[in-house]
Amino acid sequence: MLLLFQTGSVFAQSKMDGVISDLIGTPYVYTGTTTKGFDCSGFTMYVFNKLGVDIPHASRSQAQLGKKIAKADLIPGDLVFFNTTGKGISHVGIYVGEGKFAHSSSSKGVTISALSDSYYSKRYVTARRVMSPSTYEKYADEPSDEADGGGDE
C-alpha cells in the first residue's frame, strides 16, 4: 500500500518521509519492532534506527531523550508524546509537518494523524528533539526557499 503525503508538506521530499511512507499500513503489534508489526515506540525506534539514530523501545524512555520542544516550535522529525492511559506518557509519534504526526495506532496500525484531532489534542503531553541539527539536515532535504525568512543578510 502506497500513501503519498499531501503536496506541499515540508516533509514530502525528505528521506525520513520515504522511510515512514513505506511503513504506512503496517499493522499494530504489541511490543512489535519490525515491519511485521509495530507498537508506537517500536515504530519510532525503527524509523530512527533507519536514519542512524538509536533510541530505546519505550515511549516513557524516549520522552527523556534530547531537548524539550514547545508545540509551536515542532519541526519534522521531532517526537510527540501523549497520555492515552491516564497514567503518564503512553504513546509516541513522529511529527511530519503541517500539524500532523506518524505513529502506530492500536486501531489502525502505522498511520498519519493530526495533532488537532480531538483524541490527540486532549492527550498531548510534550515533544522532544532527539536528532542533532546535522542529522536533521542530513535527512530533511527542505527546499532552500523555505529557509528564506527575509530578514537574512
From TrEMBL:
Domain NlpC/P60: 9-131
Keyword match Repeat: no
Keywords: Hydrolase, Protease, Thiol protease
PANTHER family: MUREIN DD-ENDOPEPTIDASE MEPH-RELATED
Protein family according to the UniProt entry: Belongs to the peptidase C40 family.
Keyword hit for Repeat: no
Disordered: annotated span: 133-153
Protein name: C40 family peptidase
